Amino acid sequence: MSTLHIFSKPISYYDNERLVNLIQQNDTVLLVGDACYSQKLYFQLCDKLLLLSDDAKARNIEIMQQNTAIDYEIFVAKTLSSSQSITW
Amino acid sequence: MSTLHIFSKPISYYDNERLVNLIQQNDTVLLVGDACYSQKLYFQLCDKLLLLSDDAKARNIEIMQQNTAIDYEIFVAKTLSSSQSITW
Amino acid sequence: MARFVLSLHCAPSDHDTTQRLFKFATTCLEQGHSVDTIFLYQQGVYHASEDINLATDELAIANLWQTLHQRGIKLMLCITAAEKRGLNIAATNLFTVAGLAEFAMLASEADKWVQFK
Amino acid sequence: MARFVLSLHCAPSDHDTTQRLFKFATTCLEQGHSVDTIFLYQQGVYHASEDINLATDELAIANLWQTLHQRGIKLMLCITAAEKRGLNIAATNLFTVAGLAEFAMLASEADKWVQFK
Amino acid sequence: MINVLVLSQHSPFDDMHIRDALDMTLIFAAIEQNISWLFTGPAVLALKENQNPESLGLKNYFKSIKTLEIYDVENIYVCEKSLLDYNLSKNDLIINAKPLNFKAQSQLISAQQQVVNL
Amino acid sequence: MINVLVLSQHSPFDDMHIRDALDMTLIFAAIEQNISWLFTGPAVLALKENQNPESLGLKNYFKSIKTLEIYDVENIYVCEKSLLDYNLSKNDLIINAKPLNFKAQSQLISAQQQVVNL
Fold this sequence. Notes:
The complex is a heterohexamer, with 2 copies of chain A, 2 copies of chain C and 2 copies of chain E. Chain A is an alpha/beta fold. Chain A contains 3 helices and 5 strands, in the order βαββαβαβ. In chain A, strands 4-3-2-1-5 form a 5-stranded parallel beta sheet. By secondary structure, chain C is an alpha/beta fold. In chain C, β3, α3 (79-85) and β4 form a beta-alpha-beta unit. In chain E, strands 4-3-2-1-5 form a 5-stranded parallel beta sheet. Chain E has helices at 17-30, 62-66, 80-85, 102-110; strands at residues 3-8, 34-39, 75-79, 98-100, 114-117. The chains are: A alpha/beta, C alpha/beta, E alpha/beta. The C-D interface holds C 11-13, 42-43, 46-47, 49-54, 58, 83-89 and D 11-13, 42-43, 46-47, 49-54, 58, 83-89.
């Protein structure tokens, strides 16, 4: 089981260095809201990202090939399949 | 004439890289509130810092030799002797 | 089917987070899960104000809370957080004033607690 | 002697910024300067709430505003910011409800505008 | 007439920061002061084209930004480095904003009587 | 009984973040859950000794942090790296908090049912 890390702001809002060290290989990183704008920079935290589809679309963000757009059903399902979630 | 830059939070709250480039040689950097905790790290922005004395004392912070403690009279005077102030 | 509690930590001026909380909560219900409470904490308590006055092209926050309430979700706010922040606790709309302990007990029984901020 | 305007941008739960604004404003007056207004903007508008309820070991915020008011400083708040955030603009304590233009004119005439947040 | 600079550093939907800055900019223009607006860091994203906040139920304040020129607000600036950070070019922006390097931003700041960071 | 972790990342007088986290920690202890509290980043400064907020008129909530042990809150953790960043050692802290490296922090997180970031 792994942790779901939820980010809602561009990565410059957070302390990357600590986060890089806290996020584990098998954890999931989900970008919602304004975090979607910096999907490229979030790669330093995790090499596979989920983006909340509605939020990305409203911001005219094309989801990069290696990333995955998810809807609210999957968002809810991910919180259940993770051992714990952290809203950063 | 120069700019007065006022910071109230530890430096990790800000985008250092942009600030380093925006603060000029002859500008003044004033640390108030929780910014006083990171006087050492603020040297990357400016090599001479002012700290608001009351705020530093309440936090049990010893002011480093190269920095200067100021009271509210000097705080007010500094806003007047600077061309403009920015509260970051 | 799982039991959720959700907490909201940002002021009503953060419309983006508000719409996300709404969609997450309604999706939980549509998937057959239960949402035992939505709890206002920190700046989130201001959502219970009866004086929010928004233009028609803004997010219809009042309608969102009305919908969540009608679907049976218990809307709660933290009394300590509210008193310190100046919310009128005698007029809190659809929200019930509660102690932190009441929420903590619901959170302890829930399968998942998801924060929105 | 100079003319100041000051603006406050954080919620009343930020006691540290509040005490700093108070000391700065009173020092301005003691130094013979004038403070043409203190203006509440963004989350600062919640300072005008009449329902802030703090224990006696907390910063006596109400007293600070009372003192500033008694010393003749015009306390103002932004109506647009207040309506969106749920402040009851019919009960704003010592603060006068004003449009942004009113403040902007004072700021344009002042020698210095200092923000607190 | 004084020079006033509004500084925006927050991302587009972070609370109402950009909208508060927009209101402030418009008001200073209305009372005929020499107003400038500088977007830096994630705030530059508020100028990105083809965004559609209505799909989330949110107000489309980008439309109001587009009308700034009508209100004679012509001094709109963006941080060149921040555009790069978010892969934006001048042509991806909804208004005609002037990209500034750090030195030019410092000069802009130095020319002001008041700087307000919202 | 479930494992709940309160996470603090804000500086001591940034709004009421640390105080909100303190309240949350005490409540979960009171209802007899297995509560832990992790201080990381500038939040570690809330554990620095000899601070005197009364001199600013502010409530001294550090006194309440000191009483955590009385309420059987024993799982207090600090980020080792953050202590270094602020030149603090374990002996400069007002309570007996366990310094954790990043790996141990990740393990702590993995052991929780709920993690709340305040």
